[in-house]
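Appendix C: a fully annotated inverse folding record. The material below is reproduced so that readers can follow the format used throughout the book. The structure is listed first as tokens, followed by the designed sequence.
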């Protein structure tokens, strides 16, 4: 009997398959960790006089500034904004900075806004937007600052659960079209990114949930369509970046008055967005949940 006769051939094949599975699972685990860390590197806290939100960073060729995409309802009609960024090493906070932020543009057609800060010595990982329609079941990471700085840069994993949500039985639904994910989105997450886990591309920004169980995000296809129609496609590299003079002109036009306080109702409690009762057109989505005095809807 030779040395090779001691291991039957079928067993050796099974052993090789088992070894390969172990190695691959280790690689995927490492990939998951690195993908989650990369996702955190492009997210910031948006601080306003009324609470917090989230934002995702973009690097725009031709400008030294860093731009942030967030949800319109986080910053609309608010001044004294700040961008706060936490550094993480292996999941632990290792430092932070906080700088004043200015609103560059507020979309009239969707729940999106652009902020900017002066050049800073901080290594942001700029996001890249997804230009193709994802499939239901696509694995995602959602990153947000749930309830503000206490749970900043929280990473939630899930899938794309449904495309093109327009609930007909929900009165005054605040968005014309959103997608659904199973990745958790809680107060303070609004404006935070939803990334494709495999490609790292931005699938959209978080905007709210229903009954803390149905999590909704404004999809990239809506952001792209509105950016082209409204003239802010430069954020995604689809047009020349505005000059510094043009940016100053944009920022000067953004209203900063405090929003009018109106009665609000929620779909259920707790809920991460509010609905406005019937009022004369045009209706606008405003206000915070009175039970969560801090934390954007």
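Designed amino acids, in order:
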């Amino acid at each position: 009997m030779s040395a090779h006769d001691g291991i039957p051939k079928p067993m050796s094949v099974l052993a090789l398959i088992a070894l390969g599975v172990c190695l691959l699972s280790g690689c995927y685990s490492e990939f998951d960790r690195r993908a989650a860390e990369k996702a955190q590197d492009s997210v910031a806290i948006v601080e306003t006089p009324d609470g917090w939100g989230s934002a995702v960073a973009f690097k725009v060729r031709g400008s030294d500034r860093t731009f942030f995409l967030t949800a319109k309802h986080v910053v609309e009609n608010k001044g004294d904004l700040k961008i706060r960024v936490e550094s993480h090493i292996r999941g632990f906070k290792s430092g932070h900075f906080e700088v004043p932020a200015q609103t560059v543009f507020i979309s009239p057609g969707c729940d999106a806004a652009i902020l900017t800060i002066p050049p800073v010595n901080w290594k942001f990982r700029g996001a890249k937007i997804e230009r193709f329609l994802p499939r239901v079941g696509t694995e995602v990471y959602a990153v947000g600052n749930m309830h503000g700085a206490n749970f900043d840069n929280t990473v939630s994993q899930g899938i794309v659960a449904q495309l093109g949500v327009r609930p007909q039985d929900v009165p005054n639904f605040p968005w014309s079209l959103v997608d659904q994910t199973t990745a958790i989105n809680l107060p303070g997450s609004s404006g935070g990114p939803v990334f494709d886990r495999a490609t790292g591309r931005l699938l959209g920004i978080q905007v709210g949930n229903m009954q803390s169980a149905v999590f909704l995000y404004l999809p990239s296809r809506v952001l792209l369509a509105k950016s082209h129609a409204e003239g802010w496609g430069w954020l995604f590299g689809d047009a020349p970046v505005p000059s510094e003079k043009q940016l100053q002109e944009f920022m000067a036009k953004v209203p900063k008055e405090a929003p009018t306080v109106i009665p609000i109702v929620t779909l259920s409690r707790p809920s991460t967005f509010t609905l406005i009762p019937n009022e004369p057109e045009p209706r606008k989505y405003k206000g915070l949940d009175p039970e969560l005095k801090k934390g954007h809807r």
